[in-house]
Prior knowledge:
Elements: E1 5-6, E2 12-16, E3 22-23, E4 30-31, H1 33-48, E5 52-59, E6 68-78, E7 82-91, E8 94-104, E9 127-128, E10 143-149, E11 165-172, H2 180-187, H3 194-198, E12 202-206, E13 208-213, E14 222-232, E15 235-243, E16 249-261
Antiparallel strand pairs: 1-2, 2-6, 3-4, 5-8, 5-13, 6-7, 7-8, 9-10, 10-11, 11-14, 12-16, 13-16, 14-15, 15-16
Amino acid sequence: MFxxxxxxxxxxxxxxxxxxxxTGPSDRQFLFGxxxxxxxxxxxxxxxxxxxxxxxxxxxxxxRPGKIxxxxxxxxxxxxxxxxxxxxxxxxxxxIISVQAxxxxxxxxxxxxxxxxxxxxxxxDCAEANFWRGDGSGLNARLEIRIAxxxxxxxxxxxxxxxxxxxxxxxxxxxxxxxxxxxxxxxxYVPSAIAGATGLHAGGNSLDxxxxxxxxxxxxWVLCDVQIESLANGIVHGRMNLYAPxxxxxxxxxQSMILRVHP
Length: 263
């Protein structure tokens, strides 16, 4: 979905901000936060040689199309089975995203889950999402999203306060199977549930994104179950569970967002 380029320094990578990695109005496009998170995860995994366990991103500024973002990886702790790492995405001296993470794995015969995937229609039986502000280009054009329950941000029929629940199927139109990077991008769609929750033509600017990985299985579609939890002092909190079609919980995510009400 994107190309992360290595440098002579094994702890430094860079990403060219192409328009197909961006969202927003055509005159104010910016790098989608989930792409920055996904790039950070890839940089840390390749630097550490270990899979990500969890990662949390703090969104600091915007990267516009045409810019080159440097990713500097630090690994302050490396144990026998896990590493603690962090990444700073920046354009020269401008800090864009800061990411903290743990990486590693431990062999064992036990695996289980206590969260059940909701019973919803299959992707072919769900309507495709409409994007607002002409956002059906850029990154959004590369993803197929089908609504299983609730109202998506681009639904202009939203008029009343909802229960805060939005469930949708997501897949890459380019055939990319679900992996840690695609799940990180999907997790950054939590703000899409704000409009249906509030009954307003509203969205949110993400302040952060935290994702915790379970067992990732090869699959085409990912079911994203979003719950908006609270709104106070202009800040919205929400979470997401990400499932494989067979019900495996592949990741959980949460975000805090600045409420944006649009005309």
